[in-house]
Amino acid sequence: MLPIRFNATDDLSHPSVLSSMLLTLPFVGLLLATLAIASFVALEPLGWLAAISASVVYMALYGFIHTEAIIDVADAVYAAHSGKDPYVIIKDPTVGAMGVLYGVSFLILKISALSYLLMHHLFVPFMAIAAISRISLLILIRTHDFRSSFVSQLKESLPLWPLLILIALYVAVGWMVPMSIALLGIGILSALLLSSLAKKSLGFVNGDVLGMSLEGVELILIFAVLLAWV
Fold first, then answer.
1. Rounded CA gap, 216 and 140, in Å?
2. Which residues lie below 8 Å from residue 120, measured CB to CB, with a gap of 6+?
3. What's the pLDDT tens digit per position in 154-174?
4. Among 16, 23, 31, 33, which Cα is nearest to 168's?
5. For residue 205, how far is the Cα from the chain centroid?
């Protein structure tokens, strides 16, 4: 949701533009987490209300785009169970009952867990989680074949070596942060597991599966941090 302006002549579908966008995603995660932390610190005298507000701010800053994917994937999975075409359902702009239930349940868990993280001042782990979830997203893009022309275009624009360098950079910096390397491993494994389970249920992977995986990774990592530090 942060304002980024382009010229009318800019080709936003050019591979170099898409590659730059993808490789900066972890840094975008760091920025969004920093803004959410800043909002919590500014409102901290309000106690738990500050933590809840900052948690919502974090998701609002990425436009709830990944959170919305959970609703679509849940609807599509249950459609597949009933013999319907999950791809038709996942592309349908309307929302089904199961999507609402899973979406609301996830929001309760995500806001509660992230609020708990902020109230314990675990700011650095939060920033690490925001970066790891997006590194995991990049790995999924490189790993899967997609039933989405746009995500397939992203995959073609994501070079392997810069991605490996990005991961190595995180590992190099992560040695200074307790548990950060372990969180990276948990995040990548969680992303692969969640996306594989979705693919098994749906028969395909698309952008919604990527978004659902990112949200799942963040929730799993927040719980891992809280179990380790609190």
1. 13
2. 226, 229, 230
3. 999 999 999 999 999 999 988
4. 23
5. 15
